[in-house]
Amino acid sequence: MFVSSTVFVMEQSKSFRAGPLNIRVTLPAPGWRTGAAGPQRERLSVERIVDTALDLMRSKGYDAVSMRAIAKALETGPASLYAHVANKEHLDQLVVDRIAQQVPIPEPDPDRWDEQIKQMMRDTLAAYRQYPGAARATMAIIPTELGALRSAEGMLALCKAGGLTDQVAAWACDLLSLYVGAVAVEESIWAERTRAAGRAGAEVDEQLVVDQVRAYFESLPADRFPLVSAMAVAMTTGDGEDRFEFALSVLLSGMRAVSEQG
Amino acid sequence: MFVSSTVFVMEQSKSFRAGPLNIRVTLPAPGWRTGAAGPQRERLSVERIVDTALDLMRSKGYDAVSMRAIAKALETGPASLYAHVANKEHLDQLVVDRIAQQVPIPEPDPDRWDEQIKQMMRDTLAAYRQYPGAARATMAIIPTELGALRSAEGMLALCKAGGLTDQVAAWACDLLSLYVGAVAVEESIWAERTRAAGRAGAEVDEQLVVDQVRAYFESLPADRFPLVSAMAVAMTTGDGEDRFEFALSVLLSGMRAVSEQG
DNA sequence: AGGGATTGACGAACAGTGTTCGTGAACGGA
DNA sequence: TCCGTTCACGAACACTGTTCGTCAATCCCT
Question: Which nucleotide has its C1' atom closest to residue A32's CA?
Fold first, then answer.
């Protein structure tokens, strides 16, 4: 499935980095060699590169995905990749965009638009979780690629179904995607640590870490940190899911409130 | 000014990495050599290392802060740093914590607690902005160092002044610091790109980029992206400040709402 | 005061990283 | 059939974080 379409091409194929800020858009796939049998080795393409990057990421984590590792998996050298991808940053954006395409876009229902937005957020987080570390590339993206545009369009539709102002809807989409990206990044860093600790030997008991932190908070001197020590339990209660759901409630309540009060 | 205090020491100094997840706490400064005149070259210390890291970061950006660069600025080799700092990740945490110590903690006033929280968030963002890229290390921190604890304590105090539930207050602090960290990271990535573009020649006109993106959104096919193309103006309106203020309003309205409805 | 042990400093090296250059071969169009 | 474009790729460059082994300076103890 080709991502390319002349509609999305702002810059011409000769130069990946036309704009001063390197805002990149997917290139048209190399048009020639449409039919006929392939050569001995299957041709390299953006799709194949992104595919193997995703595979590696899913099985070995973000840090294992280097240009060399991708090239090796494709049985070639790292230099070959640069004919199809501008650089690693560009590849990361393509990877993220491909992931974004996985999340389903619901048909807006004015009666439960907020629940639908929450579900989209949950789905997005779930998609990121499949590829630990990919989210690190999300945060600096202006949605110009297909996947991000699709998400933005879906989110905007839900916001409008909820009767939000245009301005609130637009900024809220920004805020929501920034937040879900941040959560994914945070989780991926912890996952990476657990992975590293696992490689180094000792198993990691998550509950044990939580208990340790709680005990530490409680042990703090009450004269300097009265609240942290007193609220140690509240601060260490709940797993990632609980906190995520809490944040979703806060964000959606807030969006409604701000939209109403203008 | 020493950060160390036996209160904060969970692990003993012999090993930086005791816990399976490498949750590190500042070590007690080397106690020996309390008085007497120094040798020819001033002794290395955690403080001096963090100081030069901050200097480098402020003047040349995060990517310029490598162990080698820090060592060079201190007129020594990279290996010398590892006697005082476990690794780069640890150093990053110390740097972030030092930055966090710069933000002022207000005296809680129940009449304007929400405005006080907003101000703390603004101050935190401003502090991060001084050191582009430092925020990249924030996101995976459990507040166990002095600076982070101080912030958490201040935030909790303001939340309690606003009458929030313990649970809401605790989770909200988490959410708020995650968000402000995410904004700082996002900005730093853009700043890095601008920096890189500047190094490569062409000046970057921010307004021009915005105009370009807006034009691109408007040019999208209305049958596939009706909302994005129609709301192009709303989506590209407002600078970072406007969006940040919007997010603060959303977050605080949401916190109030969630706390009231239980 | 002298000797031994501790400990910070540090040069060199290792295993990686992203990226570029120049060569060589395969292919489509004329 | 030949030309010129286009992709593949080996080698190398300039980095990165980190570790090892050594050296000299310092403190403590006798």
Answer: C28
